[in-house]
Amino acid sequence: MPVGSPAVGDFDRVWVNANLCTMADGLGVVRDGAVASKGGRIAWVGPREALPDTDAAMTDCDGAWLFPGLVDCHTHLVFGGNRAGEFQRRLAGATYEEIAREGGGILSTVRATRAADEETLVAAALPRLDGLLAEGVTTVEVKSGYGLEFEAERRMLRAARALGRARKVSVTTSFLGAHAVPPEYKGRQGEYAALVAGMIAPLAAEGLVDAVDAFCERIAFTPEETEAVFAAARAQGLPVKLHADQLSDLGGAALAARFGALSADHLEHASAEGLAAMAAAGTVAVLLPGATYFIREERHPDIAAMRAAGTRMAIATDMNPGSSPARSLLLMLNMACTLYRMTVEEALLGVTRHSAAALGMADRGALAPGLRCDLALFRVGAPEELCYWIGGNPCAGRVVAGEDA
Ligand code: NIG
Ligand code: FE
């Protein structure tokens, strides 16, 4: 090639006339930028004026803001029924924990989920999934944990996989058999934890499990029981995650760090030491402001301690029928900023790069060459508007692996 002639890009598609938040280094703003894809991956990102010559199909973004596709890294999207009635009871004074202790709460969703077949579970979950996708989500994690017996847990995980086939979205699954103690094991909690540990290998053999999660809490599993489940996950080579220190401090954050967990989630009651241990282990803090808000938890995660320790923070919906019926990841951005006083940059990293890290997905979460070409286009004047508006949906387009979705 003669010196000085423009490089010619071998691209499938190019997006131009967009402002970019690459999220590769902070917000990574590029005004009047361009993104090019090849084979479903990002091949080039930068200012439009530097885009190599190409005859690839060109999409004009009309000045909108292009982000990496959003990643909702903690949901319980698949479940039967709902708990609006329980919500009404809480309005009359009952607490989330009281209802759980009476056999309501998670166990009432277990009854409805056990009674539903796979098709029913998928049909109920699809509108919830569609709400997330409409706002620019391209990757979503889905947990089991309302079956609490082998076949029902399996059905939930199969339903989650079916969601990934029904829509253009990456679905990643977490097996949460250790979510609550089923009624038939009341008083034999350790036995149930051992049973859960034993479910991991057969479910993983069917390709249904991407990670293993547990609920370590005084209304759920002890740290010792959690460790038994994690040991079984480790034996299968599966990464772990933990619902940690949501209602009380049982040392869940440090436990998760000890196991090199991908993430520890909730963390309202986590200690500064636990959060620092997470930073050292590379365990991401998944913050769930919808749950803080909906169960009116007065204590908030210690953002200052996480900043001081360098703990990466992600934000997710926790979409579930009991503690966070949140069907909007954009609303969670506003809540994270308003309730937790997170910055716009922290919040936006929390639904992109850091939430991808919370799923162990190094191939997404930013606009950078080599990563998957998952994009979300927003008709806003500035990135901070994604955190600012309450309601309304500025998402104007989604791209999954280089294709319009
Ligand atoms: O993430 N913390 C435990 N599990 C869910 C709540 C599930 C439910 O109440 O149904 C959560 O908040
Ligand atoms: Fe959860």
From TrEMBL:
Give the note describing cofactor binding and stoichiometry: Binds 1 zinc or iron ion per subunit.
Question: Where along the sequence do coiled-coil regions lie?
Answer: none
Q: Where does 4-imidazolone-5-propanoate bind?
A: 83, 146, 179, 246, 323
Predominant subcellular localization, coarse grouping: cytoplasm
Alphabetical UniProt keywords: Cytoplasm, Histidine metabolism, Hydrolase, Iron, Metal-binding, Zinc
At the top of the EC hierarchy, this enzyme's class is: hydrolase
Please give the cofactor(s) recorded in the UniProt entry for this protein: Zn(2+); Fe(3+)
Keyword Iron (UniProt): yes
Please provide, alphabetically and separated by semicolons, the GO molecular function terms listed in this UniProt record: imidazolonepropionase activity; iron ion binding; zinc ion binding
Q: Can you tell me which residues bind Fe(3+)?
A: 74, 76, 243, 318
Give the record's GO biological process terms.
Answer: L-histidine catabolic process to glutamate and formamide
Segments traversing the membrane: none
Domain (Amidohydrolase-related) ranges: 66-378
Question: What does this protein do, in the record's words?
Answer: Catalyzes the hydrolytic cleavage of the carbon-nitrogen bond in imidazolone-5-propanoate to yield N-formimidoyl-L-glutamate. It is the third step in the universal histidine degradation pathway.
Q: What does the sequence similarity comment in the record state about its family?
A: Belongs to the metallo-dependent hydrolases superfamily. HutI family.
NCBIfam families in UniProt: hutI
**What is this protein called in UniProt?**
Imidazolonepropionase
Q: Which organism is it from?
A: Roseomonas indoligenes
User: What gene, per UniProt, encodes this protein?
Assistant: hutI
